[in-house]
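Case study 2.
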Amino acid sequence: MKELEGKRILVTGGTGSLGKTLVRRLLTGEMGKPARITVFSRDEAKQHYMRLEYMHREAATDDVIYQNSQDLLNFRIGDVRDYSALLAAMREVDVVFHAAALKQVPSCEYFPFEAVLTNIFGAENVVKCIRENNLPVEKVVGISTDKACKPINVMGMTKALQERILIEANRDCPNTIITCVRYGNVIASRGSIIPLFVEQIRKNQALTVTLPEMTRFLLSLDRAVDTVFAAIRDGFRGETFVPKVLAAKIMDVAKALMGEKELPINFTGIRPGEKIHEIMVSEEECFRTVERGDYYVILPVLPELREKFDVSQALQNEYSSKDNNISVEDLRELLGNANDEIGQFLTASK
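Prediction:
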């Protein structure tokens, strides 16, 4: 039987970029046909348009195994900051994908306590619902970020604490497997640099890059969901899954998107809270990081949560975006395959 067959699933932050892609993939049945999928978020407008999108879906094809996915999919208005609203949503749930977050780095710098309330208190509320009400939740996957590794900004700091709260909760919730996933910049996600570059190129404007040496890990939304599913399928309590992905210089991303055009590049300087290079696994985490297929898996920081098997250390140095950057040509292929709209844009720009 597939891991999510017949399961009742809750996706917090389900109207976000990752949440929507996760729901779409859940509906294909690749992990089994769920009994119910509930999207929990605070934005009624996004829920309305997401509901319409699924109600107007064409008849089932090979990649969507139900004709009436809207009957399987339901929506709840609520905020992860609100314990009672979250508890009501979690009462009859088997699996929780915790994707709700404040994730834009500058916004979190200007409103740090708002990030604390969503990213830290939200995670604690998920745990509190299970622990204090003996909820029969089987698995929780918390969605984190490379910015949680050696954090220098509020977003990363709050996400690092989110990771620790979820991982430690395995001690108090012995019937629930709680894991995390940590990954880098999602190509073309809302608020990211790539859609901004595309818009600037379409308008023949100068491209804005913070610093020439800036690098980032890049992965598609589907690769992010693959990582979440790997944690569901192969994760033990307290583990953090990190995908093996490519990294690139942001300057090269700009060049790859420009294609034959030669537009000027303006360097705007580093933004509040921004890193030059991102790290997905720190030097300190290397000694407890193992390899599992296409993923690095960071074992729990608390030794009593680690499974009793031989650990073959997978990394000798930190896993950083400054290393092994891909070429402009390879970037064009990566970007084109990651997103249909960008693929069409790159084809037109040749």
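The mean pLDDT is 91.
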